[in-house]
Amino acid sequence: ALAAASRLRPRAKPSSSGMRRCTRQTLKWTQQRPNSRAVSANSTGRAVLAFFDGSSLTLEPGALVKVTSLVRTSGDGLQVELEQVTGRTWAAVEKLKTQASKFQLKTPTTTAVVRGTSFETTIEIVNGQTVTTIKTSEGEVVVQAVSGGPPVTVGADQQTQVTHCVHALPETLM
User: Fold this and answer.
1) Which of 62, 80, 126, 135 is the most exposed place for a label (fewest CB within 10 A)?
2) Global pTM?
3) Closest CA to 100 of 133, 127, 76, 134
4) Distance between CA 53 and CA 145 in Å, rounded?
5) Nearest to 132 by CA among 141, 143, 117, 118
6) Do residues 130 and 123 touch, judged by C-beta distance below 8 A?
7) Cα distances (Å, whole numbers) of residue 38 to 26, 43, 63, 68
8) How confident is the chain (174 residues) per 10-residue block, as mean pLDDT?
9) Are 86 and 64 a contacting pair, CB within 8 Å?
């Protein structure tokens, strides 16, 4: 399989020990083009997309992500294109194995391209405008506003926000 998605949802009733267990639903992609399969996490659960190269994307409650392209390249490379529609995700992207490999995450206001990086992406509506925030915890993320302009490199412990096509410079997190 090129990728698998698991949805984790707490069961309605706690077990006899008082612990809540999760129900797991798994989807697998074995074809080269998944036809924009959507993966979502409901308001109480999470979902995890795991790719064959070891990269993963965790969807927080309420997040929605579409897998728009998933292709295995020669030399065991992987090309992943995702579209995050809503919510918060956490990506852990392994160092890409070939020059043809790529990991790209699009949002309503940005496109983020990464190689060997850990980062968080949050989409919010603030005062009626879509705001995308990208926080990098390890490595670098190259962020391009959908409206154009120069791309911004967001390094470890930095973040950037793009608000309805207005690009902000990266700022260092404390």
Assistant:
1) 126
2) 0.79
3) 76
4) 28
5) 143
6) yes
7) 13, 16, 10, 9
8) 54 49 48 62 83 89 90 83 95 88 93 92 90 95 90 94 65 60
9) yes
